[in-house]
């Protein structure tokens, strides 16, 4: 993974729509790769059907 094209289709509008509709599972590898490439800390929060937080995970990018 050296450029944005390597992440094409991993986290895009279609992928996010599929997540929201429950048609696909969250891909840990995709989120990890995006966080590293963009140097972003990413917070993943899972909620139940009542929108109560059931789990939270943070991918942290260390400053190099």
TrEMBL record:
<protein>
    <submittedName>
        <fullName>Uncharacterized protein</fullName>
    </submittedName>
</protein>
């Amino acid at each position: 993974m050296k450029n944005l094209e390597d992440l094409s289709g991993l986290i895009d509008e279609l992928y996010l729509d599929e997540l929201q509709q429950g048609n696909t599972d969250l891909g840990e590898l995709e989120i990890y790769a995006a966080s590293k490439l963009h140097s972003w800390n990413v917070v993943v929060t899972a909620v139940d059907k009542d929108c109560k937080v059931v789990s939270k995970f943070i991918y942290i990018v260390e400053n190099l």
